[in-house]
Amino acid sequence: MSEGLTDIDFKALNFLTLGPDTPGKVTNDEILAAHFVFLGLVQRGLVAKDIGEDGPTYSITFAGRAALTDHGQGEGSDDA
Fold first, then answer.
1. 29 φ, ψ (degrees, to nearest 5)
2. Based on C-alpha coordinates, what's the Rg of the chain?
3. Mean pLDDT of residues grouped by 10 in the chain (80 residues)?
4. pTM (2 decimals)?
5. CB 68 within 8 A of CB 13
6. Lowest CB count within 10 Å: 26, 43, 54, 78, which one?
7. Rounded to whole angstroms, what are the CA distances from 53 to 29, 57, 60, 74?
8. CATH of domain 7-70
9. Distance (Å, rounded) from C-alpha 59 to C-alpha 17?
10. Among 3, 12, 23, which Cα is nearest to 61's?
């Protein structure tokens, strides 16, 4: 399930285990990059996107948690 994911993808998934993220309006390269990484994970079904008043909010899905576990970074691993 975690085939083809980059280190950045795993970092984003790990970040989302802390809770949903709303990067906000694109005002700099870092926010733009966050949206692109999250959208790539949305396309793979690892992250869900909801639209709110402050823009899109991204949250990890069960498949995203499973990908972390497959990679040794999920709940119960020493790396989480």
1. -65, -35
2. 12
3. 84 96 92 95 97 92 94 55
4. 0.83
5. yes
6. 78
7. 22, 10, 20, 31
8. 1.10.10.10
9. 8
10. 12
The label of the residue with tokens 């959208």 reads 39
* Beta carbons within 8 Å of 28's beta carbon, 6+ residues apart: none
Q: What pLDDT sits at residue 79?
A: 44
Whole-number Å distance between alpha carbons of 52 and 75? 28
The two structure tokens encoding residue 40: 């790539």
Place of tokens 């990890």: 60
Q: How far apart are CA 74 and CA 64, in angstroms?
A: 9
Beta strands in the chain (DSSP E): 47-52, 55-60
Beta carbons of 47 and 15 less than 8 angstroms apart:
no
